[in-house]
C-alpha cells in the first residue's frame, strides 16, 4: 500500500516557507547568520542558545517563532533520517520529543504522535496528534496550512489513537479517556471534534463511547465521551446531528444491528436531555461498516475490534 508520508510533506512545506521568509528576517535580525551557522552545522545546543538571545533582543524578538521553527525543523529532519536505522531509536525519540515541546510546527507533533502509536503509547499518541490539529488551526504558527488530505489523515489518526487508548478490553486499568484538545482561540472543544480545520469541515468523527458488554449502558469512559460530545454540539450549534452506532464483528448481524441502534439512541437521548435543540438522527450500522484503516501496522485483532466498536458523530454535507 502506498501510504502518503505526511511528515515528509510537512518538512518540505516548512523548508519552502522558511526559505521564503529568510530574506526579510536577515534584514531585521543581526543574529540570523549565527543561527544559520548553528543549524547548518546541526549544532542544536548552539541553535538553542541563539534562540534564547533572539528572544530578548529588541530587533530580533519578533522573529522568535521563526527561530524556533527553524530549529524544530532541523530536529524533525534529523529524526526522520533515522527511520529504519537500528540502534538509533532512542536518538530519534529524543529529537522528536524535543522538537514537539515548543508546539510551533504541526509536523513535529504529528511525527511524535505516529511514533507513540508505533510504541502502543496510545494516550500520548492522542495528545500529540490533537496538538498537531490545533497548531494547524493557529494561523500564526501555521501561516500556510497543509493540504486537506493531510489534515484529514491527522484527524483520522487522532480519532484512531483515542479509540485505542479507550479500549477497555486491554489489560485491566490500561484504558483511559483522552479529551480532545481545547481550541487555541477560546478554550472551546477543539482538536478532532473541531467543526472546521482551516477550511476542511470533518464529516465523520469516531468517538470512544464505550458500553458495558452487550448493553446500551455506557462505561465511565463512555460517559466522559458523551459529555464531551454534548459540549461540542452545544458550542457548535449544528442544525442536525447524526449519531451512527457501530459494533465489532463478533456476534450475529441481527444482534449487532439491534445493539448499535440501542446505543445510538441512548446517545441521542442524552443529547436531548442536556439541552441540544438540533435535530438528532440515529443510524445503526452494526458490523456492516468497519472503520477504514489505511495503516494496520502493529495492530492486533483486539485493536481492530476496538476501532470498529464506536459511535460516530456524522455531520450532514452541505445541501443534505
Short description:
The chain is an alpha+beta fold. The chain is built from 11 helices and 4 strands.
Main beta-sheet strand count, sense and barrel state: 4 strands, mixed
Number of β-strand runs = 4
> How much β-strand is present in the residues?
5-15%
Widest sheet: strand ordering: 1-4-2-3
Order of helices and strands: HHHHHHHHEHEHEHE
Spatial extent as radius of gyration: 22 Å
Shape: elongated
Mean model confidence by pLDDT: 91
**Uncertain spans:** 21-25
How far the N terminus sits from the C terminus, by CA atoms, comes to 33 Å
User: How much helicity do the residues have?
Assistant: 40-55%
Structure description:
The protein is α+β, with helices and mostly antiparallel strands. Strand 2, helix 10 and strand 3 form a beta-alpha-beta unit. Residues 21-25 have low confidence and may be disordered. The chain is built from 11 helices and 4 strands. It has helices at residues 6-28, 32-40, 44-56, 64-80, 89-100, 106-118, 122-137, 148-165, 220-236, 253-273, 301-308, and strands at 204-207, 240-246, 279-286, 311-314.
